[in-house]
TrEMBL record:
Residues 16-223 form the AB hydrolase-1 domain. The keyword Hydrolase applies. SUPFAM superfamilies: alpha/beta-Hydrolases (SSF53474). Pfam families: Abhydrolase_6 (PF12697). It comes from Streptomyces auratus AGR0001. Keywords: Hydrolase. It comes from the Bacteria. This is Alpha/beta hydrolase.
Amino acid sequence: MQLYTHEWGAGERIAVLVHGLMSDHRTWHRVGPALAERGYRVLAVDLRGHGRSPRGDYGAELFADDLVETLPAAPEVVIGHSLGGLALSLAVERLQPRRAVYSDPAWSLAGLGQSVDPALFVTFKRADRAKVRMFNPRWSEADIDIELATVADWDTGTALALSAVHREDRTPEKPVVPSLVQFAGEGFLFSAPAAAELAGRGFEVRTVPGVGHTIHRDDFDAFMAGLEGWV
Protein backbone atom coordinates (compact mmCIF):
# COMPACT_ATOMS: atom_id res chain seq x y z
CA MET A 1 0.00 0.00 0.00
CA GLN A 2 1.25 3.46 -0.89
CA LEU A 3 1.00 5.65 2.21
CA TYR A 4 0.22 9.33 2.42
CA THR A 5 3.46 11.21 3.09
CA HIS A 6 3.96 14.75 4.37
CA GLU A 7 7.25 16.52 3.66
CA TRP A 8 9.31 19.27 5.24
CA GLY A 9 12.56 20.66 3.83
CA ALA A 10 14.52 19.96 0.69
CA GLY A 11 17.88 18.73 1.92
CA GLU A 12 19.89 15.99 0.23
CA ARG A 13 19.74 13.71 3.28
CA ILE A 14 16.43 11.98 3.99
CA ALA A 15 14.92 11.57 7.45
CA VAL A 16 11.77 9.48 7.90
CA LEU A 17 9.24 9.80 10.75
CA VAL A 18 6.79 7.00 11.60
CA HIS A 19 4.03 7.75 14.13
CA GLY A 20 2.34 5.59 16.74
CA LEU A 21 -1.14 4.15 17.17
CA MET A 22 -4.05 6.63 16.89
CA SER A 23 -1.80 9.30 15.41
CA ASP A 24 -0.51 10.36 11.99
CA HIS A 25 2.10 12.68 10.45
CA ARG A 26 0.72 15.64 12.42
CA THR A 27 2.24 14.32 15.64
CA TRP A 28 5.63 15.42 14.23
CA HIS A 29 4.61 19.06 13.71
CA ARG A 30 7.64 20.29 15.67
CA VAL A 31 10.10 17.49 14.91
CA GLY A 32 9.72 17.66 11.12
CA PRO A 33 10.61 21.36 10.79
CA ALA A 34 13.46 20.97 13.30
CA LEU A 35 15.05 18.22 11.21
CA ALA A 36 14.49 20.24 8.04
CA GLU A 37 16.46 23.07 9.66
CA ARG A 38 19.32 20.59 10.10
CA GLY A 39 19.42 20.00 6.36
CA TYR A 40 17.12 17.02 5.94
CA ARG A 41 14.31 16.34 3.55
CA VAL A 42 11.84 14.95 6.06
CA LEU A 43 9.18 12.38 5.11
CA ALA A 44 6.43 11.63 7.65
CA VAL A 45 4.04 8.86 6.71
CA ASP A 46 0.48 8.10 7.77
CA LEU A 47 0.35 4.36 8.50
CA ARG A 48 -2.55 2.43 6.95
CA GLY A 49 -5.75 3.08 8.88
CA HIS A 50 -4.45 6.45 10.07
CA GLY A 51 -4.72 9.98 8.72
CA ARG A 52 -4.97 10.25 4.94
CA SER A 53 -3.68 6.76 4.13
CA PRO A 54 -6.01 4.04 2.82
CA ARG A 55 -7.88 1.55 5.00
CA GLY A 56 -7.64 -2.21 4.55
CA ASP A 57 -6.44 -5.27 6.41
CA TYR A 58 -4.20 -4.59 9.40
CA GLY A 59 -1.29 -6.28 11.09
CA ALA A 60 2.29 -5.59 12.19
CA GLU A 61 3.82 -7.07 9.05
CA LEU A 62 1.47 -5.09 6.81
CA PHE A 63 2.48 -1.83 8.51
CA ALA A 64 6.10 -2.75 7.81
CA ASP A 65 5.47 -3.78 4.20
CA ASP A 66 3.83 -0.41 3.53
CA LEU A 67 6.94 1.43 4.71
CA VAL A 68 9.08 -0.53 2.27
CA GLU A 69 6.57 0.06 -0.54
CA THR A 70 6.33 3.80 0.11
CA LEU A 71 9.74 5.04 1.23
CA PRO A 72 13.00 5.50 -0.67
CA ALA A 73 15.66 2.94 0.14
CA ALA A 74 18.58 3.76 2.40
CA PRO A 75 17.42 6.98 4.07
CA GLU A 76 19.87 8.69 6.40
CA VAL A 77 17.77 8.10 9.51
CA VAL A 78 14.33 6.72 10.41
CA ILE A 79 12.59 7.54 13.69
CA GLY A 80 9.68 5.34 14.73
CA HIS A 81 7.52 5.99 17.78
CA SER A 82 5.54 3.22 19.53
CA LEU A 83 3.70 1.32 16.75
CA GLY A 84 5.95 3.16 14.31
CA GLY A 85 8.95 1.68 16.12
CA LEU A 86 7.47 -1.79 15.79
CA ALA A 87 6.79 -1.29 12.07
CA LEU A 88 10.29 0.10 11.55
CA SER A 89 11.95 -2.86 13.25
CA LEU A 90 10.10 -5.25 10.91
CA ALA A 91 11.05 -3.19 7.84
CA VAL A 92 14.58 -2.08 8.71
CA GLU A 93 16.38 -4.96 7.01
CA ARG A 94 14.70 -4.04 3.73
CA LEU A 95 14.83 -0.25 4.15
CA GLN A 96 18.50 -0.25 5.22
CA PRO A 97 18.65 3.24 6.75
CA ARG A 98 22.06 4.40 7.90
CA ARG A 99 20.63 4.81 11.42
CA ALA A 100 17.41 3.80 13.16
CA VAL A 101 15.83 5.42 16.21
CA TYR A 102 13.14 3.59 18.18
CA SER A 103 11.28 6.00 20.45
CA ASP A 104 9.50 4.00 23.19
CA PRO A 105 8.76 1.23 20.65
CA ALA A 106 5.79 -1.13 21.07
CA TRP A 107 7.83 -4.32 21.16
CA SER A 108 6.15 -6.01 24.17
CA LEU A 109 9.28 -7.28 25.86
CA ALA A 110 8.05 -10.48 27.47
CA GLY A 111 8.44 -10.28 31.22
CA LEU A 112 10.53 -7.10 31.04
CA GLY A 113 7.88 -4.44 30.54
CA GLN A 114 4.22 -3.99 31.30
CA SER A 115 1.93 -5.92 28.98
CA VAL A 116 -0.53 -3.53 27.35
CA ASP A 117 -3.32 -4.82 25.12
CA PRO A 118 -3.73 -2.43 22.15
CA ALA A 119 -7.49 -3.05 22.25
CA LEU A 120 -7.61 -0.82 25.33
CA PHE A 121 -6.96 2.18 23.12
CA VAL A 122 -10.21 1.71 21.22
CA THR A 123 -11.97 3.60 24.03
CA PHE A 124 -9.96 6.70 23.10
CA LYS A 125 -11.99 6.99 19.93
CA ARG A 126 -14.60 8.71 22.09
CA ALA A 127 -12.14 10.84 24.05
CA ASP A 128 -12.92 14.50 24.59
CA ARG A 129 -10.49 17.30 25.33
CA ALA A 130 -10.61 16.75 29.08
CA LYS A 131 -9.66 13.07 28.75
CA VAL A 132 -6.76 13.81 26.39
CA ARG A 133 -5.50 16.46 28.83
CA MET A 134 -5.84 14.07 31.77
CA PHE A 135 -3.62 11.47 30.14
CA ASN A 136 -1.19 14.03 28.69
CA PRO A 137 -0.75 16.86 31.20
CA ARG A 138 2.49 18.12 29.62
CA TRP A 139 1.08 18.62 26.12
CA SER A 140 0.51 22.00 24.54
CA GLU A 141 -2.96 23.08 23.48
CA ALA A 142 -1.84 22.60 19.87
CA ASP A 143 -0.93 18.98 20.55
CA ILE A 144 -4.30 18.32 22.16
CA ASP A 145 -6.01 19.80 19.09
CA ILE A 146 -3.90 17.53 16.88
CA GLU A 147 -4.66 14.46 18.97
CA LEU A 148 -8.40 15.04 18.75
CA ALA A 149 -8.11 15.44 14.97
CA THR A 150 -5.93 12.37 14.43
CA VAL A 151 -8.10 10.15 16.62
CA ALA A 152 -11.14 11.26 14.62
CA ASP A 153 -9.34 10.10 11.45
CA TRP A 154 -8.11 6.80 12.97
CA ASP A 155 -9.56 3.34 12.25
CA THR A 156 -9.81 1.41 15.52
CA GLY A 157 -9.36 -1.82 13.58
CA THR A 158 -5.62 -1.12 13.63
CA ALA A 159 -5.59 -1.66 17.42
CA LEU A 160 -7.78 -4.75 17.31
CA ALA A 161 -5.47 -6.34 14.72
CA LEU A 162 -2.61 -6.14 17.24
CA SER A 163 -4.69 -7.51 20.11
CA ALA A 164 -5.61 -10.93 21.54
CA VAL A 165 -3.93 -13.78 19.60
CA HIS A 166 -1.88 -11.25 17.64
CA ARG A 167 0.04 -10.07 20.71
CA GLU A 168 3.59 -11.35 20.89
CA ASP A 169 7.08 -10.30 21.87
CA ARG A 170 8.59 -8.69 18.78
CA THR A 171 11.78 -7.37 20.36
CA PRO A 172 14.64 -7.58 17.83
CA GLU A 173 17.38 -10.03 18.71
CA LYS A 174 19.97 -7.49 17.55
CA PRO A 175 20.12 -4.22 15.63
CA VAL A 176 20.27 -4.55 11.84
CA VAL A 177 21.78 -1.08 11.47
CA PRO A 178 23.22 1.26 14.13
CA SER A 179 20.20 1.76 16.39
CA LEU A 180 19.14 3.92 19.31
CA VAL A 181 16.32 2.99 21.65
CA GLN A 182 14.87 6.00 23.44
CA PHE A 183 12.86 5.19 26.57
CA ALA A 184 10.34 7.40 28.32
CA GLY A 185 11.36 7.81 31.95
CA GLU A 186 7.72 7.79 33.07
CA GLY A 187 6.40 5.57 30.28
CA PHE A 188 4.47 2.32 30.66
CA LEU A 189 6.24 0.01 28.20
CA PHE A 190 9.73 -0.51 29.60
CA SER A 191 11.71 -1.16 32.78
CA ALA A 192 15.34 -0.92 33.84
CA PRO A 193 15.86 -4.65 33.14
CA ALA A 194 14.42 -4.15 29.64
CA ALA A 195 16.88 -1.34 28.98
CA ALA A 196 19.75 -3.51 30.18
CA GLU A 197 18.57 -6.39 28.00
CA LEU A 198 18.49 -4.22 24.89
CA ALA A 199 21.92 -2.76 25.63
CA GLY A 200 23.19 -6.31 25.88
CA ARG A 201 21.71 -7.05 22.46
CA GLY A 202 23.73 -4.21 20.92
CA PHE A 203 21.34 -1.25 20.96
CA GLU A 204 22.35 2.13 22.31
CA VAL A 205 19.80 2.91 25.02
CA ARG A 206 18.94 6.36 26.34
CA THR A 207 16.24 7.26 28.83
CA VAL A 208 14.55 10.66 28.69
CA PRO A 209 13.60 11.42 32.30
CA GLY A 210 10.35 13.01 33.41
CA VAL A 211 8.34 12.23 30.28
CA GLY A 212 5.56 9.87 29.29
CA HIS A 213 5.23 7.54 26.32
CA THR A 214 5.01 10.24 23.62
CA ILE A 215 8.38 11.79 24.35
CA HIS A 216 8.43 14.28 21.47
CA ARG A 217 5.16 15.85 22.65
CA ASP A 218 5.80 15.73 26.39
CA ASP A 219 9.15 17.51 26.15
CA PHE A 220 10.26 18.46 22.64
CA ASP A 221 13.62 19.89 23.75
CA ALA A 222 14.50 16.77 25.76
CA PHE A 223 13.45 14.57 22.84
CA MET A 224 15.76 16.42 20.45
CA ALA A 225 18.59 16.43 22.98
CA GLY A 226 18.15 12.68 23.33
CA LEU A 227 18.80 12.33 19.59
CA GLU A 228 22.17 14.09 19.73
CA GLY A 229 24.65 12.29 17.52
CA TRP A 230 21.87 10.40 15.71
CA VAL A 231 20.29 13.14 13.59
